[in-house]
Amino acid sequence: MKKILIVDDEAGIVEEVKGFLEEEGYVVRTADTAKQGIRILEEMQPEIVFIDVKLPDASGIEVLKASKEKCPKTKTVMVTGYVDQNLMDEAESLGRDSFLQKPFDLIRVAEEIERLTI
After folding, report:
1. pTM of the model
2. Four-way CATH pick for 3-117: 3.90.1300.10, 3.40.50.1950, 3.40.50.2300, 2.60.40.4070
3. Where are the chain's structural domains?
């Protein structure tokens, strides 16, 4: 069973995506801060982590760095409601695997998961 971590502080989005993914058979954990996300990432070793660019305690870039360092096989999807080209360029240079712009639909989430896990 594939494990997915969602690191995002927008509770409505998190609950919607989490519920959808659990219905699809994934094991899903969530975090609403970078610090919590990094801790869960190390414990869980997920196949995929969705990382919001803006988190209350740090940039999602910090979670991306931790993921690439501690869980190099984990696929990373950066998520944002706005496009900051400098952050997107930094995320790309650090090896992010995908990017989703909010708002996105659940079909798009499922397509990205399938694409990243083939």
Report:
1. 0.92
2. 3.40.50.2300
3. 3-117
